[in-house]
Amino acid sequence: MPIKKIKDYLDNNDIKYVIISHSPAYTAMEVAARAHVSGNELAKTVMVKMDEKMTMVVLPASYKIDFNQLKEESGAVTVQLADEDDFIEMFPKCEVGAMPPFGNLYKMEVYVAESLTKGKEIAFAAGSHSELIKLAYKDFEILVNPIVLKISVQV
User: Fold this and answer.
1) Number of separate helices (H) and strands (E) present in the chain
2) Which residues 6+ apart lie within 8 Å of 45 measured at CB?
3) Is there a contact between 101 and 58 (Cβ–Cβ < 8 Å)?
4) What is the pLDDT along the chain (155 residues), one digit of tens a residue?
5) The pTM of the whole model exceeds 0.70
6) How many CA atoms does the CB half-sphere of 146 hold within 13 Å?
7) d(Cα 51, Cα 121) in Å, to the nearest integer?
C-alpha cells in the first residue's frame, strides 16, 4: 500500500498526522535514529503465523516479541515468525519490512503490545524504508481496533 493510500485512508477518517521523511534505513532502531523518533514511539510491524493464520504484531522498536507470552495471551496453539515468502504477496506495493500496521485493511488481525499504548503518539513505516507517518495512538486504535496484550519485552 503506497503512502498515498494510507494518507487517503487517514484523511477520509479526519485523522491528523505528519509525514517524516528520512534517509533509507532498514532496522527499526536505525529508522528511529534517522527520523529522530523515540524507539518507544516507533511502531514496528512483525508478521506472525498464529495457528497458520497470518497476523500482524505491532510493538515499539525498542522491544521484541515474547512468543511464549503471545501464544499464552492469544490462546493460539501455534505461534511462529512468518517467513518473508509467506506474506510478501499480501503487500505488493510495500517494501519488505515496511508494512504499515493497518492489518484491518488487509483483512487480518492486529495484535498490539501493551508497551506501545503507553505513549500519546506512534510513528510507523508508510510502505517504504524512507518515510514514516506519525499520529496519535488513540486515533490508530480507533481505526485499527487492535487486540492489546502483554506480549513484548524491552531489548
Assistant:
1) 5, 10
2) 56, 57, 58, 99, 100, 101, 124, 125
3) yes
4) 567 888 999 999 999 999 999 999 988 889 988 998 988 899 999 999 999 999 999 999 999 999 999 999 999 999 999 999 999 999 888 898 899 999 998 899 999 999 999 999 999 998 999 999 999 999 999 999 999 999 999 98
5) yes
6) 24
7) 31
Contact 118, 40 (CB under 8 A): yes
Tell me how far apart the alpha carbons of residues 124 and 5 are, in angstroms, rounded to a whole number.
Answer: 15
Distance CA 153, CA 145 (A): 22
Q: Report how many domains make up the chain.
A: 1
CATH code (residue 43): 3.90.960.10
Domain ranges, residue 150: 3-154
12 is written with which cell numbers?
477520509
Distance CA(151)–CA(63), nearest Å, equals 10
Chain Cα centroid distance, residue 52: 20
